[in-house]
Amino acid sequence: MINLSSLDINNKNLVIRVDMNVPIKNGNILDSTRIEASLPTIEYALKNNAKILLISHLGRPIEGEYEESFSLKPVAKYLSKIVNEPCNVIDDLDSKSFFNKESNIQLLENIRFFEGEKANCKDLGAKLASLGDIYVFDAFGTAHREQASTHSAIECAPVACAGLLLQRENKFLSLALNNHESPYVAVIGGAKVSSKLELIKHINSEADHIIVGGGIANTFLKAKGFDVGKSLFEDSMIDIAYNLIEKGKIILPKKVITSTTFEGKNVKETLVSEVGHNEMILDLHLEEETVALLEDAKTILWNGPMGVFENIVFEKGTKDLSIAVARSKAFSLAGGGETLSAINKYIKSNDVSYCSTGGGAFLEFMEGKTLPSIEVLNSK
Ligand code: AMP
Asked: For this structure, is 141 an active site residue?
């Protein structure tokens, strides 16, 4: 894989695929983390005298149709401020002036407004690649999607390379995937086993211990024969969960926090064997011996909250876990939107060795899959 830092970009026109898919409400950016994550590449390019055309998607508009609520205009406005240069939004691919404008940075309108993006259309990919001298791929969050801007464009570009974010993601995720030191402790929480099944299967053969939490733990508890009352669990996953438990690595909660409503009525801490028929498990108690495993770990992989931490009543499991990860001297890797918001809420992002910007891409990478964008970059 060619890295941006190894190329001469002086006076070159760079087309950079970034992931600026940020939450926007009434034109205001609610969380700019993904924009911030793209800044090292943007700043590096500007400092080295290159002109930039950025490409990103935003949300899920109907392809081929313009819709104001999915426009990247608020992102361009925000970028202009932080890079201190005017950043215009370009909305047609036939514009003759991508790199002729006075400003060094432009942003193409939401790539999902253009027909052919989703289907990985070669014509669209070739068009995007032809707009500049070098196609830089830095959108780790979409590296698992085979689309025109994340795959065909790389394939068609005479020169394509990885941006600084992709380079970092690749380095740290590969470290945890291929060179983890033991004891290796994985923490998997969140809502559903089915959405993380491949990851759980993969780490079940790699990690020494897997701490499960959230709705995922409920499915495992049910598989062990516990009555989980009205808790979220997945019936179709029970047999699979049972087989995974058989390997002896899964660590289940012993005490949980239950309630009769999501809002937090009749909240109590109880043993997993004593959950009532009308109760839901919405958080867990992190046992001392589980904290000790994290303390002794050399590698920690964390994805997913331990409970419905958005509600303060059910945040303790996730909060205690965050603190335990922060205290551990292990190489710690965290990924996924909810996990990063828990980290920002209870600890600091630099309390974790590396926080990945990927959700689906992070899961697939850690399952041991080669992501399509990375595969095509490697083939150049
Ligand atoms: P995920 O995207 O799979 O990581 O799921 C994150 C979501 O799982 C969060 O929004 C949590 O509120 C939710 N969650 C965590 N624990 C539970 C639980 N015990 N029951 C229902 N939802 C949960």
From this structure: no
